[in-house]
Design brief:
The structure is a homotetramer of 461-residue chains.
Chain A lengths: L2 E9 L4 E9 L2 E6 L8 E4 L4 E4 L1 E6 L14 H10 L2 E9 L6 H12 L6 E7 L5 H12 L4 E5 L10 H13 L3 E5 L3 H13 L6 H5 L3 H18 L3 E3 L5 H13 L3 E5 L1 H5 L27 H12 L5 E2 L32 H10 L6 H15 L17 E11 L18 E11 L2 E5 L2 E2 L16
Parallel strand pairs in A: 1-4, 1-5, 6-7, 7-8, 8-9, 9-10, 10-11, 11-12, 12-13
Antiparallel strand pairs in A: 1-2, 2-3, 5-14, 14-15, 15-16, 16-17
């Protein structure tokens, strides 16, 4: 006995066609033009799109940032994920300086286990380097952590120097692993923040002004030089600017291999959001994230990047803090505002509404950007990331007739605001299947207990 | 009753998985993990790749170049195509100056009808411009000719000026059609040829020396300025150089939309081939084509272009002339050597052997480059270009264990040489299906009468 | 007996110092810290700058454009020149299609002889090509015409094709001569004008809209490709855009050698001038010139070009037509408005006021841009273009305390408007010497009969 | 009573003419076409060029590098300078970490005082940052040290981080001072050296291999981003590569203001010199300097940079160590070889012989590159850097008929080798005047006691 999903318009990164899908257990077992199987449960997908379950390759659930812990933990975060059509998330475990990768991983497992409504994996953030870390990188790969992360920003906490970048890339090349990079020049940011504070600048807009576009472009250029020296691919997270995009294109012209991720906020929001209602408003704190929001010309350049294939992945960098009670830690000092914003729930709807329906990207590109390419890059393809025989039955039936509005009031995310408040939403999840089990109906989670599993990843392409 | 293709490794532009394929009539009707249907003919594809039938978007069969007619007509050319795994070709009809598009199309239909072993469509070459041509462009789209071609080279015969390029692009934008461009500056080439002839330079190498890379880059830059003015996509045929590639990348950075095609000869051969055995050798004539072969650094840049997605289509510009009896028209004057070389038969094998097996591209990219993207760009997707339920059963079962060598002696192409003589060939067509009918077994055509049909194309993406 | 110019601040392209200058006959014979010579006429230059006489390398005096003849002939034009501190002009003789260079030169000599208040030379415009023209180029060099001009715009009248550009550059390389280029794509402009006229667009703004920046950048890119092929320097007249500037910088990175000229109008005026008082206003006609005025961002990019040495010459393209009686030929058809604007009189004052005093360029750069570099490039250095012993005593004593306003009412130019009406003017000519003779005092011409001589130029650097 | 230098061909950055020069005391007082003054000492310069005295803006005399002290101190170094036509040098004082600028300056004065055969000034190297250093920068400007230096390489000794670069540039902007930068990424170099040593790589070639061109381009790109943020000009010392040059050109396109210096070694020598006679040879140690020698394509790109004005200064980075007794400290460990090579003596002759006589640059450019531009950039113009009335009589009479060969045997530099051994030398100093005093005749120093004075510099342009 299986499930027969009938008459949907199946969309993959390449294809678009009408067919029935048959699920048996956790897998897709057949796709056909008119499948009949007497004992199957038949579900109609007529008039709907069928997408592979979304993959958000960039979340921070249950993240302790010192002064506070993110509003969303793995439970609420992954619940929001599936509501939005995302059936896999990749979160970041992060080594504390002086500690082991193994330790960081253990902590992260404890946070995630039995709490995830979708399947999950981890990247490992490295903040310290020594021979033991070098050796642990192989251990990580062996347990399915095939991607790492280094920070070029956050001096004194997360930031590593160029020598470590070089050594870690050498090691990642040996292991055929991939390293993701947060590209902002932390040394300069620190000085700019000091300057601003000396000048008694306090409001959220100074978060943006102390992280100008030059510090992103600079870090990208530097990273890509090191990547060229080592001759190995790198992954750039949350690209925010046209300057950064152009810098990447120049390096690719020389032959540097780089995968690029951006996030909905860098496509849809701009620096005008920092201003809030008036100059003393703290509303801008909702948009305090790193890198900061840029100009509309940057938005456009990033949409072009999606359309032209220069950016292959849209993650969210979901990192939520309540406006009341958390963001306001920085009420009188912008530099203390916890960095980050929520997004995991609305990623696919935003891409669909503001990308596909406006013609900025086509629907196959949307699937590639929100699912397929992340699956390939991070080593879970074709188990995840496509609608094909043999793949996990992670399936989104997308009700394209739904019209609504994004609002904190109605969201599943456990946070008191959304940066997309009032944004139109066209389309939503009619049904979401996770490994063959229906977990969402019409935007509501229909299961009680989380059923997400850890993903032991292999090396991606 | 249908055909059941069992156990192959299905490769699309995105996917790679093992499954059975069921064909009914001309279509793929089901893909499943273990399909059983009692009355089907069962064919094993175990151990083989399954590709969508190849699409060669650039052939010249039965082309009259004034002094002679190509060695391959539609009959021999399409026969060679299917042997090589190409089940669709797009050939060029070309208006004569002062004549109508309708007239050119009629002639081309006469040449192709009932002679094609694969499905076929036409692009329409425009060499003259007036109000009537402007109006005929719509007629062409109405009969399925949704792509056109303009030549920036071949002064006095095919070349159009920049005003016509502008006007034709405006019109193509109105019609949502696409124009392909031969990008070489014909004015300069004419002068360089005159210079060479005055200097009594006669041997084939002067073909290359009178078409330096600058004339390609210049024409590309010019075209992309006009495309930017008109704000419509363009298609560049047979890109041959790194300089041209970089020029395209710079224009894309500004937002210009352009599809790029290259050919196996520009990936695998270089200008050293013009030298032949000694300086007076005429061997180089085999490689006289336009644009000419370049340097190995250009080959590498184009491979990078394939790998990075900057080039999306590999056609052949198949245009064959016998070395003895045709190429030798230019024995004492390089400028009289008929331009062109054969290739339709070996395109996929060359990409597989020298691209996939060397790691320069992956196997999904190979499928995209040789089939899927051409289908999308030229408006025949998803009928052609993929392995999906509802698509035409144009299927290649690829014997990956075959090892051979390319040679004129064994080729199906009706021409007395191949530019790839002695090249290794790994893999070949075990079975080729055209709309459900098996037409090739183990590299041999198994049908007598051509069954190819004309493709009424719609506007591509 | 000579003239002793005492106490001025001598400014050359390199130097800035206080010294006395002694003139004997037509030459500077000594520069010293305190020269005394009993029988000299002593003139105080205390508190003034001393510049080498200006060189305007781009004027069109007495030019017949078919429908009318420029308002300024050589008499009024050169009179305005010396009033403004320009003691040398280089005007354009232009071959008519089908006629000889010799014929064009003869006509130009007839127009200029005995009518010039400053020294003068000619560039030779070539509009037609054949063996005889090829041979005449050497004749021109022999009589001191060492620079030529080709037009990439003005289809059917002046425009040449790329083959002619190539051949003329080859010839200029043999002769060590230099060719100046008007870089706009005439084919496209013609089509855009046709389009505009079909749409019944009539007002002057359409002059600008039918000559978009793309047609300038395209022509520059094309020219520089040909120059690279021929491997010889070229000269670009009246650069108007940032896009063009960047295109030149890219070519220079590859090694192409190019001299660049711009004009005050492209530094100081922008497209807003076309709008006039209201949309139906014809005021914009005053600014109808080719290339047209651009955006303020283009102005800034060109100022940067001056400051960074990417542009080495500021000419005027002086080509004056009265607003009443000449510009209004195009009252109901923008494409009939005679192209051009006056400027020879105000060039140096504009550069001084808006360049030097604003800090955009320094005063040595001003001298280089308005005099020295033109002298070097066009083969009249060090006779002209500097303040040095042995050079012609073409000397401007610049009253830096003068403050006035530019106005048609007070100008010497024989035209009923100036594009700089109402512009502030700081500084003016206190004395101008032409080969040792004082010809201007406090902005007034003090001689009756013109004394300018023809300059037999040699090949420039 | 003065000195009358008769009949020379005076060459400045702009001019070239024949005239007499009259010197009175330390100054040039007159330049004239035929000066007679009865009581002057008359010296013939007929047949010679007359250049302004050379300025070497980059020397390290008496530098203690820890393991040893440079072979040339101020005495021998400046003696070699004047022999080669250089009458001004700018050396580097360098703060030790934790110490004051004042202290470093005091030490440097002690080393230089009464020992200099030419005039001299200092740049101040900053290696540490705090409020006191910030304040001392103004003190330095007040005593004539208007330029500073920061190192992006030499981790743990000289290197500063990006935050310090930002702060120092902010401060230099306030003071209208200029900062020079050594652009190599020290973090990466350190790792590469560690790698090489672990691999037991010992020979001098590994010096070059551990400082690849990427580390120079990266540092340049980073610096120019910071300069853009601060909006102030910067100075790049000893540019060595085409990659670096192109990176600079790209930043200038955006508007970044940067002065660029290269050295004769990067124009004339390449990495083949590291190989020595055989692989185990230590000869390569003579060329161990940072950045290292590059490829011939880099040489060519830098020559183009000189010719096109993209590089405005040629210094030497003279830093000499004997091959026997000093360089051999690194006999079994390339990383211990003292960095640097001699050059102050041969700079002008090399530029003249290999630049001017080959046509790569013209003779005015040579003067600008070896004298004028350094004078302007570093605030000693027009006292130094030109031949003009009122300027110091620092004059080189250049015997252009001399033909010789560069050799350690005949050099004045106090070091046992020269990297230019066996290089042809055309031209040499016939007479050198320092502030009116003749100090060199025919390549021999004719005074016993050094007469050089400290130059209190003002802010340069």
């Amino acid at each position: 006995m299986g499930i027969l999903l009938k008459g949907g318009n199946i969309i993959t990164a390449t294809d678009s066609y009408y067919a029935d899908i048959r699920i048996e257990g956790e897998k897709i077992v057949a796709i056909g033009s008119d499948i009949t199987q007497s004992d199957d449960e038949v579900i109609s997908a007529k008039g709907s799109y069928i997408f592979p379950g979304g993959i958000d390759s960039h979340t921070h659930f249950g993240l302790d940032v010192g002064s506070t812990v993110t509003a969303d933990d793995f439970y609420s975060g992954t619940k929001a994920a599936i509501v939005g059509g995302t059936t896999t998330i990749l979160d970041y475990a992060t080594q504390n300086k002086g500690e082991t990768l193994q330790g960081a991983l253990k902590q992260q497992f404890e946070k995630a286990e039995d709490k995830c409504f979708c399947d999950y994996g981890f990247h490992m953030g490295i903040t310290d380097w020594n021979e033991f870390v070098n050796s642990e990188m192989a251990d990580m790969v062996n347990v399915g952590i095939t991607s790492f992360k280094l920070y070029m920003a956050y001096k004194k906490t997360l930031q590593v120097d160029d020598g470590i970048i070089y050594k870690a890339l050498k090691r990642s090349k040996e292991l055929s692993a991939l390293i993701a990079f947060h590209c902002e020049n932390g040394d300069i940011i620190e000085v700019l923040i000091d300057e601003a504070r000396k000048n008694n600048y306090k409001s959220p807009i100074y978060h943006a002004l102390t992280r100008p576009v030059n510090v992103e472009r600079e870090a990208i250029a530097r990273l890509l030089e090191i990547a060229e020296l080592v001759d190995t691919p790198v992954y750039i997270v949350h690209l925010s600017s046209k300057a950064g995009m152009d810098c990447i294109l120049d390096a690719k012209k020389r032959g540097v291999k780089v995968y690029v991720e951006t996030c909905p906020q860098y496509l849809l929001l701009d620096e005008s959001y920092y201003k809030g209602i008036d100059v003393n408003s703290f509303e801008g704190a909702k948009y305090v994230m790193s890198p900061p929001l840029r100009k509309t010309s940057d938005n456009l350049a990033l949409w072009k990047g999606l359309s032209y294939g220069d950016i292959s992945i849209v993650g969210t960098d979901h990192c939520s803090f309540n406006y009341i009670g958390q963001k306001d830690i920085g009420l009188t000092d912008f530099s203390k505002i916890p960095n980050g914003a929520p997004g995991v729930e609305h990623r696919i709807a935003l891409l669909y509404t503001y990308g596909v329906l406006t013609g900025k990207i086509n629907i196959n590109q949307m699937v590639a950007l929100t699912s397929t390419d992340a699956a390939k890059v991070f080593g879970i393809f074709p188990k995840k990331g496509t609608i094909a025989v043999g793949s996990d039955a992670d399936i989104i039936v997308w009700d394209k007739d739904y019209i609504g509005e994004i609002s904190a009031k109605t969201q599943t995310q456990n946070v008191d605001y959304t940066p997309y408040e009032g944004f139109k939403q066209h389309g939503r999840v009619k049904y979401a299947f996770l490994r063959g089990e229906m977990v969402v109906i019409d935007g509501n989670v229909k299961i009680i207990k989380p059923t997400g599993k850890y993903l032991h990843r292999i090396n991606g392409r």
